[in-house]
Structures are given as C-alpha cells and as structure tokens.
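Structure in, sequence out. Go:
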C-alpha cells in the first residue's frame, strides 16, 4: 500500500561524463536494466533488452542518430519513443524520461509507448 506509481520518482542512471555523443550504455536503475543514449547534449533512455530476444541494446546496440540497432538480428528502435521500427522486433521498448542535473543523469516516469 501507499506505493502510488503515478508520482514521479527519479533514479540515478549515470554521470553525464560516462557517455560521449553517440554512445550508449546499460545501467541498472531501480533494479531494471535501462539503456541510456547520448545524442549531442541530450540523453534518452529505454528498457535495455531488445524486445525480440534477450540482447542488451545499451551495451551491444549500434546508435545512429536517434535509432538504436540491435546487433543480433538488426531490429531498430527510435530511442526518443521506444518505438520498434522494423522486424524482427514488433514490440516497443519502454521509454523513460531523463533528467540531467548537476552532471548526473536520472531516469524517471516509466512510460509505455502505445
Ligand atoms: S534480439 Fe534484437 S533483433 Fe533479435
């Protein structure tokens, strides 16, 4: 009881300096594997595991612009929305909002892409 998930809770993900432009990494945020992507000075976050099979997008994915390609079977996702863009993935990633503050990146408010 009392665990109302509608409130915004933010969880530390990584340091801003952990990622260079165009890089991604996998972190544990609140026990969940989360992929964090840096594009310019903007940070995006989705669930880390490809929705096709078990594969880490943050560690093994190939980030090109706003698209992350799963290097196992080449599914692509838009990191801004989590949307699956092509086969073999048909299920979207979970998208997390990101907050950058004091040189640290936080993820918040799990949103399921419709
Ligand atoms: S595991 Fe990612 S496309 Fe197959």
């Amino acid at each position: 009881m009392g665990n109302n998930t509608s409130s915004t809770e933010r969880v530390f993900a990584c340091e801003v300096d952990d990622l260079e432009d165009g890089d991604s990494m996998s972190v544990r945020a609140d026990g969940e594997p989360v992929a964090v992507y840096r594009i310019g000075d903007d940070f995006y976050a989705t669930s880390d595991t490809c929705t096709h099979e078990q594969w880490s997008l943050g560690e093994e994915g190939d980030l090109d612009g706003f698209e992350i390609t799963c290097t196992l079977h080449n599914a692509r996702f838009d990191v801004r929305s989590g949307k699956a863009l092509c086969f073999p993935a048909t299920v979207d990633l979970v998208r997390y909002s990101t907050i950058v503050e004091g040189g640290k990146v936080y993820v918040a408010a799990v949103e399921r892409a419709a």
